[in-house]
Amino acid sequence: MTGATVPGGGRAAVAEAEDPPAAVDKSTLAAVATVYRLTAGHRSAIAVACVLTLVGSALGLAQPLVAKQVVDASGHGRVIWPLLVLLGALFVVEAATGAAGRFLLERMGEGVVRQMRHGLVGRLLRLEMREYDRHRGADLISRVTADTTLLREVVSQALVDLVTGSLVAAGAIALMAWLDPLLLLLVVVTVAASAVVVASLLAGIRSASEHMQESVGAVAADLERALSALPMVRVHRAEEREAAGIGARVDAAYAAGVRTAKLASVMSSAVELAVQGSFLIVLVVGGLRVGGQAGSLGDLVAFLLYASYLVLPLSSVFRAVGLIQRGMGAYQRIDEALRLPVEPTAPGKPPVRTPAPRPAGPSGAREQPVLALHDVHFGYDPGRPVLRGVSFTVPQRRHVALVGRSGAGKSTVFALIARFYEPDAGTLLFDGRPATERTRGDCRRGIAVVDQNAHVVHGTLRDNITYAVPDATEAEIRRVVELARLEEVVDRLPGGLAAVIGEHGGNLSGGERQRVALARALLARPALLLLDEPTSHLDAINESALTTVMKDIAQECALLVIAHRLSTVQHADHIVVLQDGRTAVGGRHEELLAGSALYRELAASQMLRAGGGGSKEEGA
């Protein structure tokens, strides 16, 4: 187990991925205990709200007694105006205290949800990369939005309704017992029958709610997938097919929602029938007893008022129980997200080390290399290795190219260098220190990455360039704009650096997005810059310009480049050739052409072209 405190999550320990899931207790008592834990830090507000609610309820319970006095006094011809004024005052004060209590509860509910959302957002942004491979992003997002919204209603209403409703009902029952025990017995029998029906429906309500929340998350995930690939969807005329697939998810959510509504309606009807039935029984039996001189009219009026007042607390209790069970479906999804393992903030345990030969690299380097890999092994899934022994170094301020067929492991090497994953065996060294002796944040502080996707976020051009260094000066921004050859883009966009470039950089071409990503990386002044196929979206003119830029960058930091073009490779200080997850050979371009059949084959094939677009690496 790894300890972790999550704001508003009500959880002090977060289970690691390998821990077996604990059996979920779906009883009402366990659900109430869970809701109570969620209110930690808000108990004072709940206490005040409960007091205000109980005061209002007590004032409400006093009203039938005053009404009894009004009826009895009027029957004897006495003055009743003071009693009517008292009755009106009780009503007004009851409404005021109820409104104040409800406001405190709503504010408390919003506070709990805010803390929970903070905890979820902070956790989702720090999950292990493997978890993003296992879970759909939009489904995780729906746990922050839709699931917490449902839970807000539970924590702001259900718990207090359950407590105050039970207390008020108990008070009303006590007063009814004092007025007429026989009539109370008839009411209790009727309400007990309703309680049996409600209890039988709770498990079904929770199950249906869980299915509904899961279906809503699936709708969000499928819709996000389609919208993120909308050009592909439209080119292949797949709108109707995607709409049908997402529609099936919508129908599943509808079916689960209808089942929840059906069960809730049956529960609500059972409560209403019990209350109305008991009211009618009291009216008939009590009327007969008054006619037979077994009681006064005032007693019957008071008892009937208490019976009617019993409707609200009993309804609130039953509704609260049903709402809590519905909310537990949402909470279970939230709790699952809060249990997902996050990246450690402390140095981890070193992987299994195996003897390794001296890694291939440029000879004569006297400085400590900025990066070194020694016999690194790794697989995304157990028993399916991707890297089977990769070794090479990247000296300070040198340009190293990484080449190989698609699936050779080039992108996986980048993922390990960025510390998205940890090697299964072997060693990564940053500036001569093992990566496992440093935190992931420390390792990432010295690197920057420009990958094939060239991530651009919604916002201004300036926001994207300064993403890593928000407080960069104008001079620093101008410098990287010139280095990345972005001057023309800045001049073309209305507003220049202040221009909004749209969702995913929709207002930019692929090459422009790549240059924006390059400028962003350079602004951080990394010791090691990782470039994943930097010329894949560039035309011949910009490719030539980027080649010049890379020479300039190599004077400031080390470059490790995944390359498919000869123009990128032939100017490198050192080339590392990967084959089937292993380091096959290394050297300069001319040396490899003369001495490596594999490299000559790559150079002669489509894997290393003299110009044009390189084939995009698929898989690892």
- The strand line-up of the biggest sheet is 8-9-10-5-11-12
Based on CA inertia axes, which overall geometry fits? elongated
Mean pLDDT: 76
Radius of gyration using CA atoms only:
35 Å
What percent strand? 5-15%
DSSP helix fraction: 55-70%
- Oligomeric state, counting identical vs distinct chains: single chain
SS class: alpha/beta
Strand segment count: 12
Describe the largest sheet: 6 strands, mixed
Number of helices: 20
Q: What separation lies between the terminal Cα atoms?
A: 31 Å
Task: Outline the low-pLDDT stretches.
Answer: 1-22, 350-361, 610-620
Describe the structure.
39% of the residues are buried. The two termini are 31 Å apart. By secondary structure, the protein is α/β, with parallel strands linked by helices. The strands form three sheets. A six-stranded mixed beta sheet has the order 8-9-10-5-11-12, with helices on both faces. Strands 4-3-6-7 form a four-stranded antiparallel beta sheet, covered by helices on one side. Strands 1-2 form a two-stranded antiparallel ribbon. Helix 6 packs parallel to helix 10.
Itemize the secondary structure elements and their pairings.
Blueprint: E1 2-3, E2 13-14, H1 28-38, H2 43-75, H3 81-124, H4 129-134, H5 137-179, H6 181-228, H7 230-235, H8 239-291, H9 297-309, H10 311-339, E3 371-378, E4 387-394, E5 399-404, H11 410-417, E6 425-430, E7 433-434, H12 440-445, E8 447-450, H13 461-465, H14 474-483, H15 487-492, H16 510-523, E9 528-532, H17 540-553, E10 558-562, H18 566-569, E11 574-579, E12 582-587, H19 589-595, H20 597-604
Parallel strand pairs: 5-10, 5-11, 8-9, 9-10
Antiparallel strand pairs: 1-2, 3-4, 3-6, 6-7, 11-12
Helix pairs in contact: 1-10, 2-3, 2-5, 2-9, 3-5, 5-6, 5-9, 5-10, 6-8, 6-10, 8-9, 8-10, 14-16, 19-20
